[in-house]
Each structure stands twice: as C-alpha cells, then as structure tokens.
C-alpha cells in the first residue's frame, strides 16, 4: 500500500486508488500516518476528531470509524491497522509514503550539493517538488493547528522549501535564468523572512544585468528583518551583496575558502600566514545506520535556524551507550558545509569514570585555541574567556560540538551569543535547564528500533553471515536490548572470531549472566561500566529507587506504584523518577509510565543483589503486590458489583498507597495499563513464597482477564494461583483456583483439562458444603456443554445451579441461571417460557446494576425473538447487548452479539448491515485469536 501526505490525503493499493470517505475517517488515517508505527491512544484520537466537546458515544463512534477505515483499506490494510492498548497503530513500510521518497531525494540532493554536482541537485530537487500536490494534508486543515500534529506538517512544508531553495541554487549554478527571477520574486513575497530566496533573487537579477533591482531586494530584506526580528541579513546574503558591488558575475560557492583565524584583540582576521579554519570533528563511524527520524529532526532544526535568524543549542540526550556521539558526529559531517568558518569539537568528559571532567575554564581555553587565539592572549578569568569566545564567534558560522556534558552548568559558559553559529551538546542528562532558559532544542534518543538494530548488526558482521544465520541476528538484537553499544560489542566479537557461527555466538551470549555478555576490552566499550557512570551521579534515594525498580516486573511503572514499591509518598517518588529520567536511566512514556531497557534492568538487578538485602527486596515485592491487590479488588468490584470480594485487611500495609478508582471506566483503563505487570506480579509473588497474596491477586484479576478475553494470561495467572493454594492447603482457595483455571482453559484449546479442573472444583466445594461454589461450577459446566452443542446437558446443569442459588437466596446467581435456562429453552423451541425467564433476569440485573450480565441477557432476548421470527425486535436486542458489553469491556461476548446481529440483518434482507456487524465481530474475535473468527469470516465472504 502507498499513501500521499504531500497534498490532499491519498491512498492506493495494488488495484489502484482508494476512496477514503468521510472527514473523520480521513482525519483518523492522517493522524495514524503522521505517527506511523506508534500507538496513538484512543483519547488522543477522540480529542482530534471531536475536540473537547466529546459526544457520549465517542468511544463507540471511534471504533466504528476504525472499522470503516479497515474496510476501505482492504485485507492488507486491515492487518496493518492494529488495536494495541491504549489505542491503535498503523504499520506502514518505509517508502510507502510520498514523504519518504521526498526525504530520499533530498538526501541525494544534499550529497550532490556537497560535491557541487549541480545537475544531480537540480534533477533530485525537481523530482522531489513534483511529488507535491498542495499543502501537506491540505484536505485536513484542522491537523495543522496545535501541538500534536502541527510541527510534523510544518517539517514536511519546510522540506519542500529546502527543495525549492536548492533547485533555484542549482539553476543559478547551471546558468538557467529564464523565468527564475519571476519565480523568486513570488517566493520572496510568500516567505519574506526566508533569506535563501532573497539571496538567490539578488544573484539572478545581478546575473541578468539588473543590479539596481538586486540592490533593492537587499535593502527590502534588511528593512523586513530589522522590523520583524531586530537583526541584519546573514552572511550568505552579505556575501551576495559584496559580489554585486564588486561586479563579480560568479555566485559564491556553497563551500567558500576557509577564512583566516581572528585576532583575539579585534575579532578580525589575523593576517597572512594564519592557519586554516578549524575542522575538529571526529571521524564518522563507518557502521552508522538508522536514526532516520532523529536525523530528520536535526535537519529540520537547522532549516528553522536558517529561516529564523538562528536557533538555540541542540541537546542530544539519552542513556549511556545509546549512540549520542555517533549520531551527533554523523550529522555534523553531513551539514559541515553550512558552517564555512569551521567546526569545533570538545569532549567535556562529564561522566568520565575517573572524574576528570573538563572544567568550563579549560573548555574555553581549548575552544579559543581552536579559534586561533594564542595561549598567551587567553584571559585568565572565566568570564573574560566567555566574553572573548562570544566576540570571536559573533556573526560567523561555526558548528560547535560539545560532547558528554554533565549538566546545564557545565555548558552555559560555552554557548556562543551568535545567531549564526550552532552548538550541539550531547549528554546523558536531559539538560532541562538549557531547554528552559537557553531555548535549547531537545533531541532524545532511545534504543534502536528492531529494524535499525538489525541494520547496525548486519553492517558490523557482514551480509553473508547474517544470511547464513538470520534468526541468530534477531535473537542477538533482542539480547542486546537494541542498545547500540551492546550491538557494537556483539559485532566486535563476531569480527574477531570469523569462523564462529552467529548461532554459536548467540548461545554464548545467552549463557552469560546479565551484562557479562557485553563486557569490552576497556571501560568505554564495557556496557556495565558505561551504565555505572550515570548511576554514580544519582542521589542516595534515587539510586535506591533505581535498584528497587528491578523488583517491579515491568514493562513500565507509574508514580503511585513506585511510591508503594519504595514506601515513599507519591510526590517524593515522582521527584525521584524525574531525577532518573533526567539522568536517562529511565524513560517516561506518553502514558506516564517510566521504563528502562533490558540491559538497564539487568544492571539494576545486579546492583540490588550487591547493595540491598534479600529481605528488603522481598518486602518491596510484598508492598507492590499489596498495591496491586487492593487496587485490583476495587477495580474488580466496580466491574462486577456481585463478585464476592477477597478477604483483605481493611487497609493496605505500611508504605502502600492503593489507587482510588472512581468508576468502571477508570477501572478498565487501570487494568489495561497495568495488564502485563499484574500478570507477572502474580507469578513473582508465587515464586517468592507470597502464596496468599498470589492467590488473592489472581482471584480478583479473573473478572478483567475473563471479560477481556485474555485467556492465555488468565491460564498463566490461575496456574500460579493453584500452585499457591496447594501450598497453603486451603480447600476453598484450591476449589476457586481450579474453577478459575478451567474458565481460562476452556477458551485456549485445552477444553479436556478445563473439564478435569471443573470436576475437581465441584468435588472440593461439595466437600466443604459450599452451595454457591457448587452453583457457580454448574453454570460453568453448562457453558462448556453449550460449546459442545449438548443443549440438554447444559440445561440440566443450569437447572441444578438455579436450584442451589434459590436455596441460598442469591438473587444475582439466580438471575444468571434464569437467563441461561431461558436461552436453552429458546434453542429447544420453548419460546414463551424462554422469554419469561430471560425478561425476569433482565429486571433483576437492571435493579442490581450488573451491566455485563444485563448485556448477556439482552443477547438471550435477541435469540428468543430471532427464533420466533421477530427480526426487528431481535436486532434491537442485539444492538443493546453489543453496546452494553462494549462499555464494560467484554469483547468476546460483544462479538457474539454482533455475530447474532449480522445473522438477523441478513435474514431481514439487509446484507450491507449484516456484513458491517459481522466485520466488527470478526475484528474482535481476530484480535482475541479466537477460533470462532474463521466462522464469522466465512459469513463475510457470502
């Protein structure tokens, strides 16, 4: 599939163009393309589609829009548009967007421009400009406003202007003046602050013997810049003016001869015999790969600086070993031609293991020496050095790369005061002070994407070895946590043992303990050592929290959970997480969760085992388990008010602060966000001997996991709970665990095992005299027999359950049994009795506020009406059922009701409505990987 962003939104597949109907569906696709490969939350999408005035049906309407988009995109698009909590992601291949081709062509033009291959520059830029059909996403103007999408669209537009500037420059170099001045006059009117167009216009007019007009263009630009920005035209325009005044017909080269160094006394050229302009950049890594988004961000910042008379420093930050210096050096070499006065580089050693950080005083001396100032002329005081440094760089175009800064104070004295020079800083710290005060532009690095990591490792070990062991490469990438330094170590080991297969190398990595697999020959190539330099800068409390994070199962942790983990108040935990994030030892996600990659986790585990006692780590696990247990119980009772609660203490233990969930919506959101952590916490609690907490947490998770169709995770959780119950020798706990495990297994192709567990649960409940437990098992057995199409057996067990619930006076259980009996009576043809039973159950559930059971009962009523031929009433019941089940988060049963709705619509002669219902049902079942998806898909193909 291919998509167009460079104009009105377009889409096409192998068969041709696709018609994307409806503004909201087009907006949805536009957002997903702008954020391709990223999960866009449902909340963000709803805000984009409806603003702050959300309709009550926003969630279901969003679901419907996604469904329509999938239908429009066809089978391939439906696979690529995935539902991933907390929203949706559209997987789009590199090269599938017209903006990808535009970026590729600009890269070709950039390289050709450095070679002064002007024919290639012109051809590449003209081809790139030919891709444009109007403003980016011109038919979706609402996306151009506001923070989420405006900058992305502005970056696309900026790329177009760069292509225009370079094409005009190539025309000038090639002597193609026909019509060029008229085009440039129009461009300077449209972009009055863009100096490049004015410069090209001046040169074009001068070369066609229109010097007076050329000078008028300069004076107009100078007046506009003074009025709007309070600055003068930049050096490139000034040089063009000088050429005109000298009568020089040849436009200045983009790579002019390097100017002489400047005098420390006057700030003017030092005279004949002076050294060449500084060119201090370190060599480019031959293995650099990936980082396309970050390179595009850096390019956009440079173009913005050109168009707006400079920019603040650029801060490239990220954890140790993530490739900050490699990226900065690579990019600096790409753009060095834009800084003809020279390039300075200084390693500030802010996180050096021996504490030998370069002081600002020493750094300024090195920078001044790089500018040609004799050592004897360098002032002694730091303030004087800073003043001289800023004087010498004022009005000139230098690129200054300050590598490995410790903090903002380390860098401030080294910033130029010039809008024409650019300073790039790399640091493990986020340098928030520079961002806040000096208007620095942040470029944050994380580990590589899987594709980029594979590219890097392939570059290091060679395509032939990768082709011989492709799966080994993928495993090596994951073992290295996609951290560039770790991948470099793996590549180096492969290089020095060329006869060793990658499979064998990966086996050695797998056998190594933690970070032992990624030790290098010196501190700079040893992942453990590199990470330690960041850890050693932390405060005592932040270091403790970093170690404790290894106790939490991940993948991310929220502030409230971190507070319970560390037994600290929420605000204090937040402050410590912020400290860790600023040190790039954790990353804060858009959902407010803090996470670190697997190698940082391994490092935290090592430190915890070295520094903290076993009992203290176990206590931390107990606290986080209690946090989840008390919060999950609250959420489960909000979802199912009829659920018998676990026998918990009224208050959580000391240092534990459960989260106050207000309603079912908050409960579902919390369960979804903590899903992975909850499952693993149950497993860890059981493995650590916290048997009661393990069993209780599994018990209160059953509602969410079962309703949401998370049966595989349910089986994992309940298996751990059953083992814990066995160790506790608690018959009731064992019975409930057997029943819960059976409920998960019946949906995971392990139905025979489910039957065994149900029978064991029934025996245990019977031995304990637990009538409600027996009744619940009979309901489960009835559901199992329904799946086997044994209606009479199912009816018998439902009748047994009904009698037991009535004996105990359990109205909710009685209503569930009544609904089930009514459903099977309908299947057996006893429609009047079925309708009476299901309607009686409906009234009870409405009174009790049991929304899920009410949704299931509406489905049963729909079945009864369908059996009697009342198709309109049946369709109404199924719609009410599906909507209610969607609201409580029960996707499997929602799919069942939608499937039933499709059957009714088909029978009523409405095939399009039927296919829409079946399509929604299929999407839900396919997402759950449920066997019933295939049967629904067959209906869709009618």
Mean pLDDT: 86
> Beta-sheet strand percentage?
5-15%
Assembly context of the chains: single chain
How helical, in percent, are the residues? 55-70%
Give, in spatial order, the strands making up the sheet with the most strands: 8-9-10-7-11
Shape label: globular
Compute the separation of the termini in Å: 26 Å
Structural class: mainly alpha
- Poorly predicted residue ranges: 251-275
Largest sheet: 5 strands, parallel
Number of helices: 41
Number of strands: 13
Describe the structure.
The chain is mainly alpha-helical. The protein contains 41 helices and 13 strands. A five-stranded parallel β-sheet has the order 8-9-10-7-11, sandwiched between helices. A hairpin with a 5-residue loop joins strand 1 and strand 2. The protein starts with a strand and ends with a helix. The relative contact order is 0.04.
Compact overview of the structure:
The protein is mainly alpha-helical and 942 residues long. The protein is built from 41 helices and 13 strands.
Protein topology:
Blueprint: E1 2-4, E2 10-13, E3 16-17, H1 23-34, E4 40-41, H2 42-50, H3 58-80, E5 81-84, E6 87-90, H4 98-115, H5 118-130, H6 150-174, H7 180-190, H8 195-207, H9 211-228, H10 235-246, H11 292-307, E7 314-317, H12 324-335, E8 342-347, H13 360-370, H14 382-393, E9 398-405, H15 408-411, E10 422-427, H16 432-437, E11 441-444, H17 450-461, H18 463-468, H19 470-479, H20 484-496, H21 502-511, H22 527-535, H23 540-548, H24 559-566, H25 570-582, E12 587-588, E13 594-595, H26 598-611, H27 614-639, H28 664-687, H29 691-707, H30 711-728, H31 731-745, H32 751-768, H33 771-787, H34 791-808, H35 811-827, H36 831-848, H37 851-868, H38 871-888, H39 891-907, H40 911-927, H41 932-940
Parallel strand pairs: 7-10, 7-11, 8-9, 9-10
Antiparallel strand pairs: 1-2, 2-3, 4-6, 5-6, 12-13
Helix pairs in contact: 1-3, 4-5, 4-6, 5-6, 6-8, 6-11, 7-8, 8-9, 8-10, 13-14, 17-19, 17-20, 19-21, 23-25, 23-26, 24-25, 24-27, 27-28, 27-29, 28-29, 28-30, 29-30, 29-31, 30-31, 31-32, 32-33, 33-34, 34-35, 35-36, 35-37, 36-37, 37-38, 37-39, 38-39, 39-40, 40-41
